[in-house]
Amino acid sequence: MIDKILILLLIFPLLSCQPREDHPWNPEWKEEEGKEPQAEKQAKPRYVWIDAAANFDDYGNSRENIRKDCQRIAQTGFTDIVVDVRPTTGDVLFASSVAPALKRIDRWKGGTYGWAVRTADFDYLQAFIEEGHAAGLKVHAGMNTLVGGYLCPYGLGTEGMVYSDESKKDWCSVQNLPSGLTNSVDVADYGPRFLSPAHPAVQEFVLTLVGELAAYKELDGIVLDRCRYDDSGLQSDFSPASRSAFEKYINQKLSKWPDDVFSPGANSLPSFLNNTQRQWLTFRAKTIHDLVEKAAQKVHSVNDKIRFGVYVGAWYSTYYESGVNWASPDYNCKLEYSWADAAYQAAGFADHLDYIFLGAYAGTSGIHGSGEWTMEGFCKLGSKRLAGAVPYAAGPDIGNGSGFEKGGQGALMPEIVSTCINNSDGLFIFDLCHIKMYDYWSSLKSGIDAYLNTVK
After folding, report:
1. Disulfide engineering: 379 pairs with which of 146, 216, 252, 424, CB 3.0-4.6 Å?
2. Count of CB atoms within 10 A of residue 71's CB?
3. Do residues 58 and 69 touch, judged by C-beta distance below 8 A?
């Protein structure tokens, strides 16, 4: 008995020296005199997106410009950059064995539309990683996911693998137009040419690309953009690959395609959804869910230190048109939306992400509010729909539409920063080119500084 008591007396001082989780010795806690220990308040991250085409003249051939602007981004108060390394042409600005290197890109400059040509041979992504880290920024690679080419306006022509490689036409989405089923390569409207999310070869291609990005060991994160169905909305995707996958999903052969789902040209939901149409909406959302899940697994299998996320538009109420349920599967969407059911809810993919970006793309008159198409509303509804599954950063497009497109909105930037960062887990600004074009550096810094003063 005496021996046992001596042992306890020897052990007890050792145990009492271990800091409790709520002890001030724990570095995550601090204690003010006369108060209980409190968790140290951490500043939220502030991201700025760097679109490839819009910024290509500055960075495509100049590492020095990358260095200077990374320094200025950090001095303005941003903590992270998201660098677009696979624009809508589908060519890439990183080392890849399966995608062609980007040699030129279409862009608007000086009142004209034309090609910007890349002549430099430095690794574009690696340069941003090194210069961004040197400036104190975290660096994330953004990738346009389900695209493979671009039909340019003003007769400029085409670019991308679906035009340069005829075998890739089979990979493209097929639109259900009034004139009939049409491969997106043959559609006359200019814009990106989307790939079929259901095509097995497309999925394998995407997974290879994210694996190649994850091989950049110093990269902080990977963000999928345009991981969705194409811009024709409910008219996409009626390709043979999509039909085959859908029939397997419902375990039934369809006798009349595409009328079994939607008649030619239909691009809005009927007032009453039949069972096949409801299954179709869920099938599309599940197709994207499964691709996102596989991409997350691929990234983390290559590099378990890297973060994985997506960008989505925050307008959840109509995002089913893009075939995406970005919410948490715990968010009961079927209680709010007649087009959703339990299977659609289960297709929410937020729980497979490390972070997510919500485009709170309201206009200058829509900063405050409680509903969609206000920045504040987008942020607050995002919290509800994500249900704590993943941290999210939200913010506006400060260059396009509804008052932003002509510049001169510097006075609003502090209010925008405050509204978005205080109603989400971080700030997200699209795009760097507009900060530079309209000289919003100082106004954004004022907003960020004001926020940082609240967390000191």
Report:
1. 424
2. 16
3. yes
